[in-house]
Amino acid sequence: MKPVSKYFCLPLFILLVGCNTPNQTIHDSKLKACESVCVVRVDCHQTPELTSFAQRAQELANDLAPKITKLLGEKKFPHFKIVFKQNTAWGSDGLVPAYARGHTIYLSADWLSKYPDDFEMNLAHEMTHVIQGYSAKAPSCWTEGIATYVGFKLGYTNTLNCAECSASLPHYTSGYNCAGALLLYIEAAHGSALVRQLHTKLQQGLYSDSFFAEATGKSLEQLWTDFKQTPPFTSAAAHRLELEAWLKSPGKKSVAETMARMAEFLRTQPGGAFTADAQMFLIDLANKDCLPGFAGTGPAGLAFERDDLNAPVDFPISRIIHFLKKDDRFRYHYTVVKESPQSAWKLSKSWRTNPDGRILAIVQK
Fold this sequence. Notes:
Uncharacterised_BSP, 17% strand, 5-stranded antiparallel β-sheet, 38% helix, single chain, 6-stranded mixed β-sheet, alpha/beta
């Protein structure tokens, strides 16, 4: 249980909306549903066009706070602030839909404009992070898995958030949807108290994988093996793990062979064909000495945005591809755009980051 000193509570659940009336306090009688005293401040002065989302954030946060508290076995929800930004960035991960830092949640206006139906899941996920307060030793897969599990339990599933392991999140160690789906499976088989117990262990810094054997009578790996026999472990996840096993297997793999295997895998995924095409477009530019940062040399490694594998195919399509260069500690990032099914890919932006994710140079096309 978190110490009481971490909470700052007032006699009312108060929302401060910072779009048009930054100093206005709104009192809402419906907030009696909150099981403890809660405070929420919503700030969208950077994105005044999201006033309607700010109002939805008020209503949704009021509704979610007691539900999340109950799901995790907590007694009260800490006060927190919601900030809408034009875009959000988090370290080397680049742009993300949302993130929580301490008791402040940051939501991306760019993401919400593209995926408005993802708003509820993002807010529930980040509100869970606010209340977690886990030890620094807590595995990130459970930190993110529990936050996603909470969203699933609250009913926030859609094409972007399915309770399953997928090509983009194939293993429970990937966290998020896959870890959340595994927790749902274990809970259904071994009782609803399990996730609350796991939550407490992570807060106390007492978690180890032996927790699952003690709570269920089966080791974590046994539970994972059982889970892989169920529909939420998709064939796409299995194919991704097979590809990773090949990459890790003994023997030297050429860059060309690796990229060919990667492209073959990508083309089996709903949005992966466009990702594969975008990669080949950039590699072709590199081979022609036309790719910024790669004059006279090609990439030694690549990565792509995991969400692009299942992204809706709506034009214009954009992809962000990340390249590595041999004997170079920097990462090179490229945004490419395809305006229509008939149009060619175009490079719209490139930038370079150092190992900790700090942007060193940006080139806009």
